[in-house]
């Protein structure tokens, strides 16, 4: 995690040092709801202010754009802004930070050409723009599952990968048009590493498969649904970046993060507090996944689904480390 | 109303013709909620597109900023955007319009310096930034009323006027810093003309005074409350603009609009459909005023208040024209 913090600082410092904009325009893509998205803003301001002090320059003004899908609850974040502005004023200049909201999908254009200095995106890019099987029949390929599971044939991986490649390419193309020359991007997303590792989405899929077998959900509902996420490998990500051609990779770092976000010490006994940790993980995953699952399976089965998910997590924790791999990658726009 | 439409078209056409920005940045200040604010966007786009056709130029891209206070319900407007974008695509180029939300008070800075081409504000600027009596005692001056009424002494007018002058000056100063050189503003607001005219806010104040006399609301609640609106005269507006010095007035037009927005023919019998019109007016005013009134008087008295308001409107309509004066003013930033 220290390396990731270092990449963030390095990218922002380099960007500011090389371009010194009087107004620094920053967009947070997939900002979600609440105070975390405002934490990103104050982190970025702090890093730039430290750089300015070192370089003996006046700090720039900032124009931030918080982006998420049209259905996101922006009102909740907006209501946090008065307090946030008051706190900023306590130690910064007045009128130095202007915060906007930009609704829409980042798989497409969001800003005018040549208008943004820095893009930041945390935990958004492993979400696909749509169900990768849309218009295709998955029944013969991945019957009874709604994500990639250990028993899925390679063709299922390929369909997911194809959607990821298409989406990520469109993402890069859109951002490169919107970035000023020399502009930068910092992306954080879930990825797959060489070590085989159980994913959260696979665990949800397996829970739903169990419920299908017990007649608790309808077969046709499971058949028509796929969780639209893909954890790409670093190699797959690198390939799309190289083929699209607008960016080069400055740095990257993969961190292993336990499902409950807790720091893991080597040799630690994973069964300790298993129930509490499983409950915490389930509450978090439910907050993220429930809107999508409700839309397909209805509200009635949600409690049962997450009770079963939690039990599965408790069992799995006894035999393996439940971790995900988080990639932080820093990209700079090529000057072509 | 035709003249007002002409002013809008003239201002936007002149602005585009003289500056031809590749990306035209427009902010709607006090956008409120719903489809009307999106209508402003399509109006502006249409006028610029017509101008481009006449001048044989490619149309610009647009970046819109919808502004209102932090407590405004932005989610509702944001949910209308996907349909709005789809409709735009039917007859415009792709990626030509980017819509953002900018929460905050327009009595202060909202945007970086030199960043906006056109400001538009409809029905926002007669709202003051605060209760003009804040920190002062109004008891001796305007006892039993919560706005300027016919019996209010001149000192009450003066306190309201002073707040308006302070607010409007700060508004102009903030906007002039945010506008690009040659940038323009179109403001619509309620004003006072030479003909004495009953105001909607006075009518609410009188209704509340009646309720105080009948013991339906508490004296101290009425004493601690003032409706924070002021209808300035054209002369008062002109004076602030001249003293502040950043803008000159291109054109202005005052239209008389009946409280229910209906077009009025000369010699028309105002009592026709009085009940229906009063109900319509009351519903509209309630939507605008209720949040403010609830915060001071509580929810319990709201039904009674607006039943009485509606009755008062029916009675008043029998003896006078209930109209308000709507000023549209077009301003250009002076090149200093």
UniProtKB/TrEMBL annotation, chains A, B:
Keyword Methyltransferase annotated: yes
Keyword Hydrolase assigned: no
Alphabetized InterPro entries for the sequence: MeTrfase_7, MeTrfase_capping, SAM-dependent_MTases_sf
GO molecular function, one term: methyltransferase activity
Gene3D superfamilies in the cross-refs: Methyltransferase, alpha-helical capping domain, Vaccinia Virus protein VP39
Transmembrane segments: none
Signal peptide: none
Annotated Pfam families: Methyltransf_7
BP terms from Gene Ontology: methylation
SUPFAM superfamilies: S-adenosyl-L-methionine-dependent methyltransferases
Keywords associated with the record: Magnesium, Metal-binding, Methyltransferase, Transferase
UniProt-recorded name of the protein: Jasmonate O-methyltransferase
Organism: Vigna unguiculata (Cowpea)
């Amino acid at each position: 995690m220290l390396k990731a913090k270092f990449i963030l600082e390095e990218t922002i410092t380099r960007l500011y040092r090389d371009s010194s904009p009087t107004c620094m325009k920053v967009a947070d893509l997939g900002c979600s709801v609440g105070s975390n998205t405002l934490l990103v803003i104050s982190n970025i301001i702090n890093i730039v202010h430290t750089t300015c002090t070192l370089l003996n320059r006046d700090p720039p003004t900032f124009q931030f754009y918080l982006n998420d899908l049209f259905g996101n609850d922006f009102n909740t974040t907006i209501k946090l802004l008065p307090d946030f502005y008051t706190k900023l004023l306590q130690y910064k200049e007045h009128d130095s930070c202007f915060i906007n909201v930009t609704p829409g999908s980042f798989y497409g254009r969001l800003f005018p050409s040549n208008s943004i200095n820095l893009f930041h995106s945390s935990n958004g890019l492993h979400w696909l723009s749509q169900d990768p099987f849309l218009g295709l029949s998955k029944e013969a390929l991945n019957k009874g599952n709604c994500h990639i599971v250990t028993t899925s044939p390679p063709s299922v991986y390929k369909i997911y990968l194809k959607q990821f490649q298409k989406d990520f390419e469109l993402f890069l193309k859109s951002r490169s048009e919107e970035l000023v020359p020399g502009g930068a991007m910092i992306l954080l997303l879930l990825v797959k590493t060489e070590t085989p590792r159980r994913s959260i989405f696979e665990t949800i899929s397996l829970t739903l498969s169990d419920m299908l077998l017990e007649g608790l959900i309808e077969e046709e509902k499971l058949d028509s649904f796929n969780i639209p996420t893909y954890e790409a490998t670093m190699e797959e990500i690198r390939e799309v970046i190289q083929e699209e051609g607008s960016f080069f990779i400055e740095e990257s770092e993969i961190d292993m993060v336990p499902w409950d976000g807790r720091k893991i010490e080597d040799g630690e006994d994973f069964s300790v507090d298993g129930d509490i940790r499983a409950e915490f993980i389930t509450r978090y995953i439910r907050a993220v996944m429930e809107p999508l699952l409700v839309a397909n399976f209805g509200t009635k089965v949600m409690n049962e689904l997450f009770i079963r998910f939690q039990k599965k997590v408790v069992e799995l924790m006894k035999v393996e480390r439940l971790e995900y791999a988080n990639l932080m990658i820093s990209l700079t726009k090529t000057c072509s």
